[in-house]
Amino acid sequence: MSLGRDDGSVRLRVEDDGVGFEPGARPGVGRGLRNMSERARRLGGELSVTSAQGRGTRIALRIPRAPAS
């Protein structure tokens, strides 16, 4: 897990080397990731998920930082 900031954004990345999964291969499953992605978009950011069976998973979140007041 890593947390950082750059280019006016906050970035969170979570990676593992577990069994992984095929995104979209199981319809109706993974609604939590879809909900997280929608929340990120509402904040002007993005969520990306990279995974493959037997190769682990990486989830990266980027959200713009709010301007200092």
Helix content: 10-25%
CATH architecture: 2-Layer Sandwich
CATH first level: Alpha Beta
Give the N-terminus to C-terminus distance in angstroms: 29 Å
SSE string:
EEHEE
Describe the structure.
The protein is an alpha+beta fold. It has one domain (2-63): Heat Shock Protein 90 (2-Layer Sandwich), CATH 3.30.565.10. The protein is 17% helix and 42% strand. It has one helix and four strands. The chain has a four-stranded antiparallel β-sheet, covered by helices on one side. Strand 3 and strand 4 (56-64) form a beta hairpin. The radius of gyration is 14 Å and the shape is flat. The mean pLDDT is 87.
Draw up the topology in text.
Layout: E1 2-6, E2 9-16, H1 31-42, E3 46-52, E4 56-64
Antiparallel strand pairs: 1-2, 2-4, 3-4
